[in-house]
Design goal:
- The protein has 346 residues and is an alpha+beta fold.
- The chain folds into 2 domains: 93 residues; 232 residues, Bira Bifunctional Protein, Domain 2 (BirA Bifunctional Protein, domain 2, 2-Layer Sandwich), CATH 3.30.930.10.
- The protein is built from 11 helices and 9 strands.
- The strands form 2 sheets. The protein has a 7-stranded mixed sheet with strand order 1-4-5-9-8-7-6, with helices on both faces. It has a two-stranded antiparallel ribbon with strand order 2-3.
- It is elongated.
- The structure holds phenylalanine.
- The site of phenylalanine has 11 residues, from strand 8 and strand 9.
Amino acid sequence: MDLADLTRDLETLRDDALEAIATASDRASLQALEVDILGKKGRLTLVSRGIGALPVEDRPKVGAIANPVRQAIEAAFTERDAVLHAGALEDRLRTETVDVTTPGRPVARGTLHPSLEAMREIADIFARFGFTVYESPEIEDDVTNFQLLNIPPDHPARDLWDTLYVDLPGHLLRTHTSPGQIRVMRATRPPIRALLPGRCFRYEAVDASHDFEFFQVEGLMVDEGTTMGDLRGLLDEFARAMFGAGRKTRFRPGYYPFTEPSVAFDVECLVCGGAGCPACGRTGWMTILGAGMVHPVVLRSGGLDPERYQGFAFGMGPERMKMLKHAITDLRLFMDDDLRFLGQFR
Ligand code: PHE
């Protein structure tokens, strides 16, 4: 074997290879051919073994002959592969149809939970009157949840707010957002206009209108010379913003240990407009919240002098607002995870 033999072998291999590549009819056979020629045990490798049999002085010259051969073969593979690939694409374009006018698939978007949406609506309305949103803890101490709100340990009113106790002496899951009143009064100075939305808990037998977990939005205003007329005016504005202009409203006497006097605030029935129907128990009115003038004991609990400051407070259920607005009849839907219900809100 001399340099001339090797050169001839390489050229023969190149010519064979280029012809086979040019006539390969699909990408799979082209790939098989590539292994056969350029692979570790391929034909080019075998021919190159002949180098070992050359006289020593010829060996450095081999590269100049072998490299162009390898490059020519590799280039031919690349080029043929591109041609076959384009051909396969054209075949697909010819046989498959793409309807570019088909509408896209809608992407599912999340929605706000209806309780959260209601709390935002409420906060937006009261923001127009200068109310700021505060937070207050869900795990509360007995003193703040009850005693500072004028409900001593053995007071019969505790039966209204039976709750779940946590494994921390003197602590419980708050039964209402009213302890937030104390926390706000102690943290800021009058004039106070606070809104306290949040989760509450009660030891309840669950039914269509009671749950052991629900939300409340508490409102508190304290200033010098705050009157019940201010309370009524504000709640009227709220009811109209929430349920529509021109809604009739009324105060009824109510009872809460932390307000005096206490009221229930009603709006004209949203279903029958006041005529009387099953939805309003044939009274023509629907109760939307409880409210009253902050009890002097509570003002004192908050560190304020009741001779100087007066205030009002109110508490409402955001779920109840949604139920009244949309004629939802079961409170439990709010804490279930049924997206057919939850997805109907913004
Ligand atoms: N905390 C009362 C309740 O849970 C609601 C309320 C709040 C009443 C503020 C009057 C004033 O029922």
